[in-house]
Amino acid sequence: MENKKIKAGVVGATGYAGAELCRILCGHPGAELTAISSVSFEGQKLSDVYPAYFKMCDLVCETQEAVVERCDVIFAALPHGLSQELAAQCQTAGKAFIDLGADFRLEDEDVYREWYAGEFLDKGLHQKAVYGLPEFFREQIRGKRLIANPGCYTTAVPLALAPALEAGLADTQGIVADCKSGVTGAGRKTTQNTHYPELNEGFTAYKVAAHRHTPEMEQTLSRLSGTDIRLTFVPHLLPVNRGILATCYARLKPGATLAQLREAYRSRYDGEFFVRLLPEGRVADIRNVRYSNFCDLSLHVDERTGTLVAVSAIDNMVKGAAGQAVQNMNLAFGLDEAAGLKLFPPAF
Amino acid sequence: MENKKIKAGVVGATGYAGAELCRILCGHPGAELTAISSVSFEGQKLSDVYPAYFKMCDLVCETQEAVVERCDVIFAALPHGLSQELAAQCQTAGKAFIDLGADFRLEDEDVYREWYAGEFLDKGLHQKAVYGLPEFFREQIRGKRLIANPGCYTTAVPLALAPALEAGLADTQGIVADCKSGVTGAGRKTTQNTHYPELNEGFTAYKVAAHRHTPEMEQTLSRLSGTDIRLTFVPHLLPVNRGILATCYARLKPGATLAQLREAYRSRYDGEFFVRLLPEGRVADIRNVRYSNFCDLSLHVDERTGTLVAVSAIDNMVKGAAGQAVQNMNLAFGLDEAAGLKLFPPAF
Amino acid sequence: MENKKIKAGVVGATGYAGAELCRILCGHPGAELTAISSVSFEGQKLSDVYPAYFKMCDLVCETQEAVVERCDVIFAALPHGLSQELAAQCQTAGKAFIDLGADFRLEDEDVYREWYAGEFLDKGLHQKAVYGLPEFFREQIRGKRLIANPGCYTTAVPLALAPALEAGLADTQGIVADCKSGVTGAGRKTTQNTHYPELNEGFTAYKVAAHRHTPEMEQTLSRLSGTDIRLTFVPHLLPVNRGILATCYARLKPGATLAQLREAYRSRYDGEFFVRLLPEGRVADIRNVRYSNFCDLSLHVDERTGTLVAVSAIDNMVKGAAGQAVQNMNLAFGLDEAAGLKLFPPAF
Amino acid sequence: MENKKIKAGVVGATGYAGAELCRILCGHPGAELTAISSVSFEGQKLSDVYPAYFKMCDLVCETQEAVVERCDVIFAALPHGLSQELAAQCQTAGKAFIDLGADFRLEDEDVYREWYAGEFLDKGLHQKAVYGLPEFFREQIRGKRLIANPGCYTTAVPLALAPALEAGLADTQGIVADCKSGVTGAGRKTTQNTHYPELNEGFTAYKVAAHRHTPEMEQTLSRLSGTDIRLTFVPHLLPVNRGILATCYARLKPGATLAQLREAYRSRYDGEFFVRLLPEGRVADIRNVRYSNFCDLSLHVDERTGTLVAVSAIDNMVKGAAGQAVQNMNLAFGLDEAAGLKLFPPAF
């Protein structure tokens, strides 16, 4: 069997998303974590960087080239801007490439230029790229070899709002996405505002109405609703390690009811293993999805103001990054979409 | 001098708001914490309930009657519904009464009945009550003897939104108040969802668009803006002890600019010691106001959608409860409004 | 295959240890979680009590009797004192019984009486019971049908100290075990001192030199060292959900060196998958074993005072409870000892 | 009055200890925070570095020279090794100097050389220095102009153990100090192990039996007990901002009882405002001393092993650093020793 397994590699394995990918891939029945790379820790074991991995994943960090050469699929967890060249190398080498960065997420180069101050180095390559949000674009992902894995906020917000917009139950104007993220979303690099004593017992917003995920979630919602959507997105930093809670507000169309909304979401997500539409009365909570690939979803209506409040919760490192990337690999290689991803969230 | 000090008493001293009141009053130069009461801990020292208070406040909990009899001003930190009778006793006894509960906050009995399922036992008494949000209703508070202290959310949200609405820079329709509160706001009573392992590393919304503070903040904003305001209010529970961050969204009137907004807020809060309008580029953070009576305020504009994002941060136990109550006492008794309240927030 | 799986049941499934057992058993390749019971939640789904389990474990809580009847092995996660009767029922029914409580841990009834104020209801049953700490008593556990699963502290401390005592490198007198536990160790029942605001940012010791685990760890170390050991054990409560760090102090025998100690531990734990003896220079940390069945171990020598400092870290819910119970099931039923227990600890 | 106030200055004001000093000095009735310095933030306001201080302490960071010139007393919160020269400058300028670093704490240059790899640049200066632990060395501190402020652990451990040793109730051999510190003790500089996601939910020991505070606490205990004491000291890092809990173990002398111990501690600390000897049955907890200058102390006896367990709790930033420094200033300048230090610890 072993030789039938997909050979998976991770470039940028020592960052948080990369390390989480390694953890998930080590438990995948149809894939084998074959090679990893890290610029900062080349030659060191992953378990030297993360002692939690001792005896579970003691692979040594090699070069990008070694990873591309020895693997069937290459996951990249790199800072924005570093993936385009690697993607080209993978294409040349005939290897599948799944990018956890932002380089291939935006279809419009002008938008990319505006928000990332970067260029599309190879427009043909960008045309080949598919946006990897399986619950919405599953068919386009199947069999593909260049997949742009969505960001964390850009997974949580569209999953919370799309069905209402697709069903025409909510207004496409005046949408607000108030999101709260755990600290792992800020990455492994130390900063003053993620220094324990300066984050603990604190809570604030950042990049108010100026976060790069804004155009990405607008792109997804516009595609799905068929109208040009602009929304107000404000991220906040939570003093927890993992999880994103997206509290999304949209004005209801006249006459729209909670029952209609629930039915629209139920039918939209019918059969989606990773989306858990909560029973009425429950509210999505990040603690229930930690370490899992689930997106919990709760729907609420403010009848006094005619407003839909859709709340989604994901683990930013799993459904918001590494887990969704593996879900995309499963689709790209024709495996069971949930293979290696039936991660049981602990209750505490 | 001692005999010139105001004799202050706290009914419900062993709850969080009551205990915080005791702590603040013990440091007040013009008041003396004279008597405290607690139904659950009558006969015990406050420092037996809160060992942190050992040698700083070892008063013994007595009866309500004892407090009313021996004090000039009685603060009540009781569950909703229990203050009306006590207020009447205080009036009869000619004592000032400052209620940290909700019994006297709402002017319209129908609204009170709808949200609290209660009655106004003595309508005359309610007419005498003044709403104690000093930054907005200072003149009405001076010299009064029956003051309804605002709730925590209902302090944070109006302070964030009022100047924009008063200046006609924001639309009174479609306002969203997405608020996040520390756990002390839930009180001292143990519950499953505040049991450490079930809250730690978690984050969720509660009472979505159904929280009792909704009509109270609408009442304040309607009074100040002169129009009937209804907004969508969603509270969330933060895994921190103290603090409320209110992220408030309002559509800007055409042409309204950040400069105009900043000017409106600057002039509105000019001379307000407890409101800190942050310089452009800063964002309000609960960690900067902990243990203080400050309200930090930051203003942001989403020009892509024409939305004002006003963020306020307070300590829910201080400016959101006990501190504001003392601020009201200072006004009622003609003391320096900041007496005993120049609490220096620690940086960590 | 399905019918070949061991039918496993959990009595007391809605407590923390019981819920963790369910989570682990759901991922066990050789066992099937067949029935669960709960007195408090009979008739409700486990996922109603723990929404994190939604779609992963929606079993309904039944009666103890139903669990005993339908399962091959019954795990009990009950308050102390309630297991003896259940154990008798299981024996009568010919079912295997693994007790996570303390009823069968102590061999000496006098000691049990002194620390638990209880009796051995059926001495014969107690003689049949085996103490389930596999790394030390593996051979006695194989094939057994009545297993007393050790406590959390009583797993962490002996694993840290036994090899030094067995090898005669440390003095059996004057041992100190200073232990720190996450809050889940206190169970699901709400208490004032586990109420979030009263535990968060706090840290204290409890049951100083008076904890019931004292005689249990003494029993294990005495058995292994062949001498009667009494030690000083002080537990502390950490503001984290999971994990126990045991910092153990023992006077070194004259001439004993760190090299000798490391060799003794290396040979003692050679081949033990769940014990990770850390390289020199590393220190055991609870964050590296969370959600896993590992026990991390680091050895340190204070040459100035001739003292061994042995530090062990476990997840109190896994190696300290549910994981070890499954490890015992695997031994009792002749499965691979690590089956279902190769749980990969997350790095963050 | 203003002109009668002591002009106080802080060198290294933007570090945690320095910032805490500024906060405390701003509330001191007999001192005025006159000038502060910072190498990293010269020219910036302290409130730009710590927005919590906005409107409370907006002093601009100047040079060391400016601080020495304009102040009567200079507090130094600098990395070890940088204080000796500054102390000399202060002596020349006739200014009082209180050093929060380690340069003047150790009397024996050989010990200093061994643990700090440094030299005594001016032996005469070191002879003038007094060790500033007021509860033990009050009389030597009065009127002095060069004071070495103790470290945090070295305040907590001697306060917990000294009375038992002075009274001859405990053995001076085989003492263990198992200490746990909040993260602020590690300072403001960002490091990987204080990066929020890598400390949160974790707990470990560090510098096991190798921490520089070891010889300092031995020096104090040896001076007080009149015998040469060596102990085993193991510090741990707690996932909280503030506080040190010291769990200290010492073998009791034959016949020594808890009653004798309590009497020894009671008489030793009789009249010490900042030491709170807890009633029997209570255990010291860091949450009860946060933001205060108190040291809480609880005594426990393990009669089974003849061991004293003395537990002390302090705020590492206050009694363990800035608060004690101000206490020393009060003594040096003949003010009420508690002036500006009756800081009321919040209960939550």
UniProtKB/TrEMBL annotation, chains A, B, C, D:
Its EC number is 1.2.1.38. It is an enzyme of class 1 (oxidoreductase). The keyword 4Fe-4S does not apply. Gene3D superfamilies: Dihydrodipicolinate Reductase, domain 2 (3.30.360.10), NAD(P)-binding Rossmann-like Domain (3.40.50.720). One of its GO terms (cellular component) is cytoplasm. Keywords: Amino-acid biosynthesis, Arginine biosynthesis, Cytoplasm, NADP, Oxidoreductase. It comes from the Bacteria. Residues 7-144 form the Semialdehyde dehydrogenase NAD-binding domain. It catalyses: N-acetyl-L-glutamate 5-semialdehyde + phosphate + NADP(+) = N-acetyl-L-glutamyl 5-phosphate + NADPH + H(+). This is N-acetyl-gamma-glutamyl-phosphate reductase. It comes from Hydrogeniiclostridium mannosilyticum.
